[in-house]
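[Discussion] Sanity-checking designs against the backbone

I'm trying to build intuition for which residues belong where. Below is a structure token string of 96 positions. I'd appreciate it if someone posts a full sequence so I can compare it with mine line by line.
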């Protein structure tokens, strides 16, 4: 016998929306969610290029291990999966 899992969609408490930019493009995210999640929801999957062969790189492990999701924020290279989005965050991709 099948039993449908309860729908908890309405139990999710979302934080306020904030705006940030990615390569100058204005985007919205829920404050505190990871930058990687916000970029994936915006269908921005190409975050940088491989230094070895220039192939596209993007979110892979989602836990700060692979370094595939690195972007530039405030002049520093940082993993987007480990960075919470905040209001007016300015993000630059590592794309060439
Ligand atoms: S996705 Fe692997 S470090 Fe961010």
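Best answer:
Here's mine. Compare freely.
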């Amino acid at each position: 016998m099948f039993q449908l899992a309860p729908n908890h969609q309405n139990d999710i408490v979302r934080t306020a929306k904030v705006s940030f930019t990615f390569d100058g493009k204005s985007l919205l995210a829920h404050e505190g969610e990871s930058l990687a999640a916000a970029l994936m929801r915006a269908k921005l999957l190409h975050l940088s290029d491989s230094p070895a062969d220039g192939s596209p790189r993007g979110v892979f492990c989602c836990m700060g291990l692979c370094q595939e999701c690195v972007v530039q924020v405030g002049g520093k290279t940082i993993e987007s999966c480990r960075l919470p989005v905040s209001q007016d965050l300015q993000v630059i991709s590592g794309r060439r």
